Amino acid sequence: MKRLLLVLFCIVYIFSFSACSVSSAADVKPLAHSRYTVVIDAGHGGKDAGTIGVDGTEEKGINLSVALILYDYLMVSGIDCKLVRDKDYELYYTEEDKQKSDLYNRLDYVNAVKNSALISIHQNHYESPKEWGCQVWYSKNNDESKVLADKILTSVKAFIQPENTRQNKESGSEYYILYNATVPSVMVECGFMSNPEENKLLQNTDYQKKFAYAILAGICGEV
To answer: Tens of pLDDT along 60-73?
Structure first.
């Protein structure tokens, strides 16, 4: 029943926003290939909680919630997709260093999927509680990574963050998966858990659904 309601919600969203357009999106070129298998990576998991919100909330749970919603939306839209993790766990072998093994295994999974594109879901944190808004990091190893990042951020700004002035950035070596991925790869930092107001929003199920839809619309070129 929950899955059916989620499907119906997604359909309503798609028809509600299909007529929307954004002038700034005119310069965003479509992806060269019409079809990808979208690999959704919910960052962190298990003992790796990720960043911690101002109220003690762990990033890993928000990442997973958004990833699962996005997965359902993509499936309903007829887009092949896979989840790197669908529960609260890390990807590592018992005899290896957990953190390194987890990153290596996530990267191997992404690169092993034929004709894939990576959407990694994360949350941000900064020392100043005033910082807010989505930002997307992209891999330098594939030209279509920036295209995908720009489409997603344009969509997020159009639908839920019209006052967001952030720009996307090319990933450095600090983001291991993006730095080493060979397929179109982006990391969506949905918002700042160090910002009290945005931290609450990021935990709100309705907001998570809107955010997942904005990512879907960016992937599909809806704006």
So the answer is: 999 999 999 999 99
> DSSP assignment, residue 67?
H
Contacts of 169 (CB under 8 A, 6+ apart): 135, 137, 138
Q: Taking the model in full, what pTM does it have?
A: 0.84
Q: How far apart are CA 50 and CA 123, in angstroms?
A: 8
- Provide φ and ψ at 37, rounded to 5°: -95, 110
Taking the C-alpha atoms of residue 21 and residue 43, their distance in angstroms, rounded to an integer, is: 31
Helix 205-220 to helix 59-76 angle, to the nearest 10 degrees?
Answer: 50
Tell me the helix, strand and coil percentages in the chain, rounded to 5: 45, 15, 40
Q: Which amino acid is at 189?
A: E
How many Å apart are CA 187 and CA 176, to the nearest integer? 11
* 54 vs 57: CA distance, rounded Å: 7
Query: pLDDT for 163-176, tens place per residue?
Result: 999 999 999 999 99
